[in-house]
Amino acid sequence: RALRWGFGWELGPFELLDAIGLDAVLTTCGPDPDTADLSAAAREWAGLDPRSTAPRRLRSAPLPPAGPDLQILATAKQRERVVKRKAGASLVDLENGVLAVEFHSKLNTIGGDTVQMLIGGVAEAAERFDGLVVGNDAPNFCAGANLMMVLLEAQEGNWEEIDLMVRGFQRAVIGLRYSPVPVVVAPAGLTLGGGCEMVLHADRVQAAAESYMGQVEAGVGLVPAGCGTKELTVRAVDATVRGADPLPRLQRAFETIGFGTVSTSAADARRLGLLRDIDGITMNRERLMADAKSTVLDRVRDGYRAPARRMAIQVGGEDQRAALDLGVHLAWRGGRISDHDALIARKIARIMTGGDLPHPASVTEQYLLDLEREAFLSLCGERSTLERISHTLKTGKTLRN
Fold this sequence. Notes:
single chain; alpha/beta; 2-enoyl-CoA Hydratase, Chain A, domain 1; two-stranded parallel ribbon
């Protein structure tokens, strides 16, 4: 395990030797005297007759069993602790009063099953458990929305269906924030789009060190509409000293969303404002779910209480929006962004500054979520957005049209 973890290998040296085949390796080495001695020694070690020429594999050398703090999700499933299962997600009892929501769709993209299990998981945890972990053992926590589903609905002009999809995901994500029991999200690997929005709304986050987080919706012609734009706006405003201008912090959050910046690690995600100082980082990926469970139990012992809903968020209105739009215009004039990039950026600026308000004002959380949804739907009707989504699905790369 140490070699595999240290070098990021899937197989250790002896596992590689066994996968290739001992005879194939020794044959490749050639008829060297030293190799002959090695061949005899290797065959003896493997439990073979040193004089035999029959092809054989190395004897099985199983890894020692995982400790109680490793791979607890896999252990729970082996013990048949699955509470509920759908094609794309499951609820798993991690014992000690902790429930887990596990994703298992392709790249753990977000679909109807994911949304239902997030909402159902919070309800189930509130009724029968002390806390909830959202995580999985896959290489990537969540690669974002199911773009194929969005593309097909947009091509058919099913705007009501898209609206329901966005509303449902907003409800699921905001439900994590206001859950009556503590919710810990445990990201690892790719944590993009909606996956990042789940992270932003957890009571606590326990992230794997190698977590690559970002709100990348602009790259496919959309805006973060699962509460992500709202949340970075709120964090920028809350981090501003009373009486100071929030524009510099808002500008940084605006650029993080607009450029689709993805962190290079969990530590970098903290620098970008996607993780807070109170959130934890786990170096050993196999300990991640155990650490997340431990964090849930710590929050329970601390007397967790659900936060009050935000009813007064300060937004800057027309003047603040003009300042952000000016930066967009200069970037467009300088050829750094395309026409469609500029349109998306202006949509993001409109959300972050409160829509069409002529002056600074206090707005509710739901008001900003409605602006997110409105912008998302309008961009789904843009041909350039559909071209971006289609290109990304075909090539895995971003189209800058």
